[in-house]
Write a structure and sequence with these properties.
The protein has four domains: 81 residues, no CATH class; 101 residues, Beta Barrel (OB fold (Dihydrolipoamide Acetyltransferase, E2P)), CATH 2.40.50; 149 residues, Rossmann fold, CATH 3.40.50; 175 residues, P-loop containing nucleotide triphosphate hydrolases (Rossmann fold). It is 36% helix and 19% strand. The longest helix has 24 residues.
Length: 705
C-alpha cells in the first residue's frame, strides 16, 4: 500500500524515501532506538507516519509571562528560573516549581511527577510552555503541568504561532523530537505518490471524506484557519477519514472471517412440546419481558444449522443465568452435553449449586477442577451431562463425548484464546457468552462484532433501592457506627478491601490490617474473611455460613465481585474505593439490593486525583450499568479496561469508541454490503487487499471460533 517517495531536497533524509524502509534510515534513530520503537509497533517510515497526534496545542497567540492576566489555556514564552523540587506529604506525588519570566514580570510554573526536569531544563534557558493557568490558593496565577520545549531554533515569538500537534511520547523520543522528525519527513515526501487511496472514490464522496494522503497531511500539519475545537472533538474530515477507514477495514475482516468458517453444526435439538414445557418450568419466577426476548433469541439460534455465537449481556442481577440454564437444558434433554466456564472458583462453586437447583436431578452436574479426576473421566464417558469449572475445563485430558452448548460467564475475564479452546472441546458447539459488565454498543460492535447480541435491559420486579455515598476516610468511624446499627437490626453486610496484605508500594486498605480493625469495631457480630488465598473448603464454609445468616459480615477482597447472591445483605462498605475501577465498583455494589428492602453502599476513599474524583462521582450518580460502562470507556479508553485488550480488541490508532459510534455503524453497514452476498463491485479492490492476507486461521482468531 505504499510506493517510493520523491527525492529529498532538504538533505536531512536519505536520497530515496520508501515508506517500507526501516526507521534506521532516518537521522537520530539507531539500532537500539529502533528496537525499542518496534515494541510499540513502529518498524518502518510508514509506521511513523501513522503515529498520530493525541491532541493539539493552540500556539497561534504566544504571549510573554507578564501578559498573562487570567486563567485558561495559554502559550507562554520566556526564561525559566528557580526550578526546584518541593516535598509533599502525599505518597506518590512529586512536585517541581519555578518561574517563567520576561523583562516585564513572571508567572509561577508547577509540574507534577516529572523529576527529570531538573536535568533537562537549563537554568535561565528560554522556553515555550503551553498549559492551563489557574488561580492558586493565595490568589496568584500559576501555570500547571505545562508541556515545554526550548524556544531557541525556530520557536515562535510572542504573538505568532500555529495549531501544533502533540504526539504520544516514544522510547527515547519526546513530543518535540517526534514533531520535528515528522516535519522533516513530510518536507521530503510527496504523499500523493507515497500513499495509495484504497477506498472507492464514490464512498469518499458519499461520506464527504478527503483522500488519505490529504487527511494524513492535515493531521500532521493543520492548515491556517482551522478550528482547534473541531480537532479536539475529532470532528474534522481529516480525522474522520482515518476513523472510517480503520473501522470499515475491521468490520470487513470480521464479515469475511465469518464466511470462511464452517456453516453447519453436526448436532440437532429435539424441540418437541414436552421439551418446551420442561424449559418453561425451569424458572422459579415469572420471566421479565427482556428475559423472554433473550430466551427466544437463544432458542432460535439453537434450532439453526449454523452454530450459535451470541453475547448475552445485562446488568448485575438481571437474570442471565436462567436464560443460560434453558440453553443448557435444551442440550441435555436432546442427549448432548454442556460446559459452563466461570472466571473464579467461587463463582463456579456457586453456579454448580444454582444450576443443580434449576435443572433438578434428571442430569448429572459436576464441578471440574484441576484435581477432579473422577468427574473428568465421567465427563469423557458421557455420564456427566454438565461440567462447570474455571480454566480447568481447558486443560488437556478434559474431553466431552458430545458437547452441544458451551457457556462462558463473565466473558471479559477471558481472552479469545480461551474462548477458542473451550469451543474446540466439541464439534462446532453452540456458544453463549455472558457478561454482567454492560458493554457500550460501540465496544460490543468492535470487540464482539462476530457475535449476535442479546440485551436484558430490565431488572426483576421487587428489588429495593440502593443508595450510594462517597465519603472521605476521615468519616470511617461514623460509617461503621451506622453499619453496626444496621446489623443490630438484623441485617447483613459486606466490607470490601482492595488488598489481602498491606503493601509499602500501594497506599490502600488491606484485609490483614483493616479487616481486624473492622472486627474490633463490630465486636460481637459474627464475621468471616473471604479472599482468593483461602482454600476452597474454607471459602465454601464461610460463604455458606453467610448465606445461612450465621455470619453477619463478610470481610472480603474483590473475589466477591461476581456471583454472590444473598438477598439479606443490604449494606456494603468499600474501603480505598479509589483503588477500584468504575466497572468493578459497580459490580461490587451489585452484591446488595437483591431483596425488597433499601440498601446502602458507602465508598470510603483516601486522597483523590482528578481522575479518581470523576470516577467516584460517576459511580455515585447512577445505578445504570450501561451509563457506568460508557463513563468507564470515556475515562480510560478500551485498551486499559480489564480484560478487554486480552479479549481481542484490536489496536485502534485513529478511532475512539466513546466518540465514533456513528462512524462504526456506517462502517458496519458498508462492510456487510461490500462482502455480500453478492459482493459490491465498487469495493472489489479494497476486498482483494483484505482477502490477500486473511486465511482460516485469521478467521478463527477474529471470530473466536
Amino acid at each position: 500500500m505504499s510506493r517510493q517517495g520523491e527525492r529529498s531536497t532538504c538533505g536531512i533524509l536519505p536520497v530515496v524515501v520508501d515508506l517500507r524502509a526501516p526507521l534506521t534510515t532516518l537521522p537520530g534513530i539507531g539500532p537500539k532506538r529502533a528496537r525499542a520503537l518496534a515494541e510499540y509497533g513502529l518498524r518502518s517510515i510508514g509506521d511513523l507516519l501513522w503515529h498520530l497526534p493525541s491532541r493539539y496545542e493552540d500556539r497561534r497567540s504566544v504571549v510573554a509571562p507578564s501578559a498573562v492576566t487570567s486563567p485558561g489555556p495559554h502559550a507562554v514564552r520566556g526564561r525559566v528560573r528557580g526550578l526546584r523540587r518541593r516535598f509533599t506529604r502525599r505518597r506518590g506525588l512529586r512536585l517541581h516549581d519555578g518561574r517563567i519570566e520576561d523583562d516585564g514580570g513572571s508567572l509561577r510554573v508547577v509540574w507534577f511527577n516529572q523529576p527529570y526536569l531538573l536535568t533537562q531544563i537549563a537554568a535561565d534557558g528560554e522556553y515555550l510552555l503551553h498549559g492551563e493557568v489557574r488561580k492558586a490558593r493565595a490568589g496568584e496565577l500559576e501555570l500547571v503541568n505545562p508541556s515545554w520545549e526550548p524556544a531557541a531554533g525556530g520557536g515562535p515569538a510572542p504573538g505568532q504561532g500555529d495549531l501544533v500537534p502533540v504526539y504520544p511520547p516514544l522510547p527515547g523520543l519526546g513530543a518535540r523530537q517526534i514533531r520535528l522528525l515528522l516535519a522533516a519527513l513530510l518536507d521530503t515526501l510527496d504523499l500523493d505518490h507515497a500513499i495509495d487511496e484504497t477506498l472507492p472514490q464514490s464512498v469518499l464522496e458519499r461520506h464527504r471524506l478527503p483522500p488519505l494522503p490529504r487527511a494524513l497531511e492535515t493531521l500532521h500539519r493543520p492548515p491556517p484557519g482551522v478550528d482547534p475545537a473541531a480537532f479536539d472533538r475529532g470532528a474534522t474530515p481529516a480525522q474522520q477519514r482515518l476513523v472510517y477507514g480503520e473501522l470499515v477495514a475491521l468490520r470487513a475482516r470480521i464479515e469475511l472471517a465469518r464466511r470462511l468458517l464452517p456453516a453447519r453444526k453436526p448436532h440437532r435439538y429435539s424441540f418437541d412440546p414436552a421439551l418446551l414445557e420442561r424449559l418453561d418450568a425451569l424458572a422459579p419466577f415469572a420471566l421479565t419481558a427482556a428475559q423472554r426476548r433473550a430466551r427466544d433469541e437463544v432458542l432460535a439460534d439453537l434450532e439453526r444449522p449454523r452454530p450459535m455465537q451470541r453475547l448475552l449481556q445485562g446488568d448485575v442481577g438481571c437474570g442471565k443465568t436462567i436464560v443460560a440454564a434453558m440453553a443448557i437444558a435444551a442440550a441435555l434433554e436432546s442427549g448432548l452435553q454442556a460446559a459452563f466456564m466461570a472466571p473464579t472458583e467461587l463463582l463456579a462453586e456457586q453456579q454448580v449449586d444454582r444450576l443443580r437447583g434449576l435443572l433438578g436431578s434428571r442430569h448429572r452436574v459436576e464441578l471440574v477442577t484441576a484435581s477432579s479426576r473422577a468427574a473428568v473421566a465421567a465427563l469423557g464417558s458421557g455420564e456427566v451431562a454438565l461440567a462447570v469449572g474455571t480454566h480447568a475445563l481447558l486443560q488437556r485430558g478434559v474431553e466431552f463425548r458430545r458437547l452441544g452448548v458451551a457457556v462462558i460467564d463473565e466473558q471479559h475475564r477471558f481472552g479469545v484464546v480461551q474462548r477458542r479452546q473451550l469451543v474446540a472441546k466439541g464439534a462446532l458447539p453452540d456458544l453463549l457468552v455472558m457478561t454482567a459488565t454492560p458493554i457500550p454498543r460501540s465496544l460490543a460492535l468492535t470487540l464482539y462484532g462476530d457475535l449476535d447480541v442479546s440485551v436484558i435491559d430490565e431488572l426483576p420486579p421487587g428489588r429495593g433501592e440502593v443508595r450510594t455515598a462517597v465519603l472521605p476516610r476521615s468519616r470511617r468511624a461514623k460509617v461503621y457506627q451506622a453499619l453496626r446499627r444496621r446489623l443490630e437490626e438484623g441485617g447483613q453486610a459486606y466490607v470490601v478491601l482492595p488488598l489481602i496484605e498491606a503493601s509499602t508500594e500501594v497506599a490502600a486498605a488491606a484485609l490483614e490490617r483493616e479487616g481486624d480493625e473492622v472486627r474490633r469495631w463490630l465486636d460481637g457480630v459474627p464475621a468471616a474473611f473471604v479472599h482468593g488465598r483461602l482454600d476452597r473448603g474454607a471459602r465454601a464454609r464461610a460463604m455458606q455460613a453467610f448465606a445461612n445468616g450465621e455470619v453477619r459480615v463478610l470481610i472480603a477482597t474483590s473475589v466477591i465481585e461476581v456471583g454472590v447472591d444473598v438477598a439479606a445483605a443490604t449494606f456494603m462498605v468499600i474501603e480505598s474505593a479509589e483503588r477500584f475501577g468504575l466497572a468493578q465498583l459497580h459490580q461490587l455494589r451489585g452484591r446488595i439490593g437483591r431483596g425488597a428492602g433499601e440498601s446502602h453502599c458507602v465508598a470510603l476513599h483516601g486522597p483523590l486525583g482528578p481522575e479518581a474524583q470523576r470516577r467516584l462521582a460517576a459511580f455515585a450518580s447512577t445505578l445504570d450499568g450501561f451509563r457506568i460502562a460508557e463513563a468507564d470507556l470515556a475515562e480510560r479508553g478500551p485498551g486499559d479496561l480489564d480484560g478487554w485488550r486480552q479479549s481481542g480488541l484490536p489496536r485502534l490508532r485513529a478511532a475512539r469508541l466513546d466518540r465514533d459510534l456513528g462512524w462504526l455503524e456506517r462502517a458496519q453497514a458498508d462492510a456487510r454490503a461490500m462482502v455480500g452476498p453478492p459482493p459490491d463491485p465498487e469495493w472489489s479492490r479494497f476486498l482483494a487487499l483484505l482477502e490477500s492476507d486473511l486465511d482460516e486461521q485469521d478467521a478463527r482468531r477474529l471470530t473466536g471460533g
